[in-house]
Amino acid sequence: MKLKSFIEFSIYGLKTIFFKNTNPILATIILTDYCNLTCKHCAVNNIDKIIHPYEDIKEEMLKLYNEGVRILFFCGGETLLWNDSGKNAKDLIAEAKEIGFELVNIVTNGTIDLDIKEADIIFLSIDGTKENHNYIRGNTFDTILENVEKANDSNICVYMAINNRNYKDVKELCELVKNTKNIKSISFNFHTPYEGTEDLSLSREQKIEVVNTIKQLMKEGYPIFNLYSALDYYLDNNWNRPCKQCLVVENKKRFVCGRCVEIDGLCNECGYLFAAEFALLFGGNPKIIYETLKTYLKFV
Ligand SMILES: C[S@@+](CC[C@H](N)C(=O)[O-])C[C@H]1O[C@@H](n2cnc3c(N)ncnc32)[C@H](O)[C@@H]1O
Ligand code: SF4
Ligand code: SF4
């Protein structure tokens, strides 16, 4: 991480903790809901089938920057399917950097391209070992790994959504990450039970088992981009939500924390570890602050 970003984030953190600042620092812009996959756990693909126009996205980027947002994510649908006015997602990342965003990340299913040097972090969704990943995401595992092989200069973090089908795969996926040259880290979320996907939810016993596995793997030095202490808060469902410092923007509409905020009762069953981590961080939890600094300096 650049020194300038580090100082800027530290000042924001101090303001948040001591002056209860709730201005958003992190935003996700949804570029499109088109997707080339229909994953079993997903509730946000191919609903309106819209490619949002370049001009709207550019305007939103400028607004967010002027409002103080410094960490920007692009997401979808399949994010890399977006193109408009002769621009693609890589152009958007480059423009976001020119505007001044300190960290610009992208989330992708990895079936199209992973050679995205423009991004600070590429969150690449892999949902387990080959058999379970392909069960959830269609027959894409081999294609994704071929794309990883070609992505020499990118900072790739595997993003796994853990559910009751793939939860035993955590260790094996960590091994794969550790042994794959072009992958730097892995980050976990738990299944969030959107309507129609409840059958993938984990029981409390399964969650405890996975959390213990992840903690053990962290102790053994696997490159896990999550916060150790946040896992216990997640298990106890003991964190304040929605996270006010995070925004999602889709088609000019803004949501605090996530689009899911509008679904009755879902926040109480939230599996998005990053939401818990940010909420704890901005709530001023000292252990989480320390772990965030350590983790971000290592992986960003
Ligand atoms: C909606 S996808 C969009 C980006 C891209 N298409 C992809 O799959 O990475 C963003 C992330 O949300 C995760 N996700 C989708 N449904 C989820 C659910 N019910 N619970 C937890 N994570 C989920 C996906 O696994 C993916 O990592
Ligand atoms: S690739 Fe992403 S957006 Fe598409 S269906 Fe899967 S999780 Fe949803
Ligand atoms: S707390 Fe979880 S479910 Fe609620 S809006 Fe945030 S990410 Fe979505």
TrEMBL record:
SUPFAM superfamilies: Radical SAM enzymes (SSF102114). Gene3D superfamilies: Aldolase class I. Residues 21-224 form the Radical SAM core domain. The keyword Manganese does not apply. Keywords: Iron, Iron-sulfur, Metal-binding, S-adenosyl-L-methionine. InterPro entries: Aldolase_TIM, Elp3/MiaA/NifB-like_rSAM, Radical_SAM_PqqE_MftC-like, rSAM, rSAM_sf. PROSITE patterns: RADICAL_SAM. This is Radical SAM core domain-containing protein.
